[in-house]
Design brief:
By secondary structure, the protein is mainly alpha-helical. It has five helices and no strands. The radius of gyration is 18 Å and the shape is elongated. The mean pLDDT is 87.
């Protein structure tokens, strides 16, 4: 059960980071900001850049919350009961599906970057 609490701590950290980005702070922690030339950075609005990253993080946070809640409410009880073999395919599909959703959202967020 310790791993579930560790997963919730990671989700909480991601949600806090999203909150910071949505307020317009933390642009220097976004990968794309540091890769831009100083001239490009001077042209761009630092706060808008951070808010854009925060908006893309919202669906990722929701997917992470869904993933951890699913693991805690479905997988852990099955492990504790000893009948995880009955749910193995379902747990794998749901977990991989949510992970794939996170990857797709991340790729879409990079597509619009110019």
């Amino acid at each position: 059960m310790l791993f579930v609490w560790i997963m919730w701590a990671v989700v909480l950290a991601a949600c806090i980071a999203t909150g910071v980005l949505l307020t317009g702070h933390g642009a220097s922690f976004v990968t794309g900001w540091r890769q831009k030339s100083p001239e490009e950075r001077a042209r761009l609005d630092r706060g808008a850049f951070a808010r854009r990253a925060g908006k893309w993080m919202l669906p990722i946070d929701l997917a992470l919350i869904a993933l951890v809640a699913y693991v805690q409410l479905r997988a852990v009880p099955a492990i504790e009961r000893g009948d995880i073999h009955r749910y193995g395919g379902e747990i794998t599909l749901v977990s991989l599906g949510l992970c794939l959703l996170i990857v797709v959202i991340a790729l879409l967020s990079m597509k619009g970057e110019k």
